[in-house]
Amino acid sequence: MSYKRILTIQDISCVGQCSLTVALPVLSACGVETAVLPSAVLSTHTAGFSGYTFRDLTEDMPKIKDHWIKENIKFDAVYTGYLGSTKQIEYVADIFRSTGKDNCIKIVDPAMADNGKLYPGFDLEFVKSMKNLCAEADYLVPNISEACYLTDTEFKTEYSRTYIDELLAKLTALGSKNIILTGVSYKEGKTGVVVYENGKYSYYEHDKISNGCHGTGDIYASAFAGSLLRGKSAYDSAKIAADYVVECIKTTQNTDESEEKHWYGAKFEPVLYKLIQALN
């Protein structure tokens, strides 16, 4: 197994089991050297906590990139998560071009929407900039809400294969080479992930667990990226990541009654060994 180096760019919530506090341990567990570029530092994530601190690191991003260039530091892959502004998206696009090795794998999780709505603070100008970044992605990992915003498509909670095929065609038209579309559910009680690679459609279905956890999208994208860097196919990486997220949710929901309710994130750490087993 060759030893790969991946750069992940997203914010870090010091408490909350999302973004970089998920990406770094999950990618490391996959056996991949993981470099990080924090886009912001928050005391906690923003879902359910109040009075959190926030420090924007936008203006640090090009300075860090310049130092890497000076030191001739290059990456086998770059994986992006939550980005806070159009300016950050512009900087990330430059980082793709200036710090990636030949054949650098670019993985974009356009973390900006869920349940048919944009996250607070985002607008259609941000969506427009994200479209440009997605065009450079070798692997694009959106949920259906994000796919709809990226393609100017009406969001639906009930749909057929035709609707998904149309989304995939529009996403490909943006320039994205391969699509990993999460949260695709064709029947009650089931959900799954569509892998659209080089025009070929594959679908991995699994049980849908009600009352999911905050941060599972970050867990999924990180496990997918790590699996891909370990040499797994896109479909196998998508399957491994999906199975791992299911294990994380089950572990979180099975919290002992004597323990404090774990409402703010997914307990991904106790089942990291299952991810490692799947990769090996």
Describe the 3D structure:
The protein is of the alpha/beta class and 280 residues long. The chain is 39% helix and 24% strand. The protein has nine helices and eleven strands. It has a nine-stranded mixed beta sheet, sandwiched between helices. A hairpin with a 7-residue loop joins strand 9 and strand 10. Helix 1 packs parallel to helix 7 (216-229) and helix 7 runs antiparallel to helix 8 (234-253). The longest helix has 20 residues, at 234-253. The mean pLDDT is 94.
Q: Low-confidence parts lasting 5 or more residues at pLDDT below 50?
A: none
Strand numbers in spatial order across the main sheet: 3-2-1-4-5-8-9-10-11
Largest sheet: 9 strands, mixed
User: Beta fraction of the residues?
Assistant: 15-25%
Order of helices and strands: EHEEHEHEEEHEHHEEEHHH
Number of separate strands: 11
3D shape:
globular
SS-based structural class? Answer: alpha/beta
Output the number of helix runs: 9
Specify the helix fraction band. Answer: 25-40%
Over the alpha carbons, how many angstroms does the gyration radius reach? 18 Å
Cα distance spanning the termini? 11 Å
- Average per-residue pLDDT, rounded, comes to 94
State the gist of this model.
By secondary structure, this protein is of the alpha/beta class.
Write the layout of secondary structure elements.
Blueprint: E1 5-15, H1 20-29, E2 33-44, E3 54-56, H2 61-70, E4 75-80, H3 86-99, E5 100-108, E6 113-114, E7 117-118, H4 124-134, E8 139-140, H5 144-151, H6 161-174, E9 178-182, E10 190-197, E11 200-207, H7 216-229, H8 234-253, H9 272-279
Parallel strand pairs: 1-2, 1-4, 4-5, 5-8, 8-9
Antiparallel strand pairs: 2-3, 6-7, 9-10, 10-11
Helix pairs in contact: 1-7, 2-3, 3-4, 5-6, 7-8, 8-9
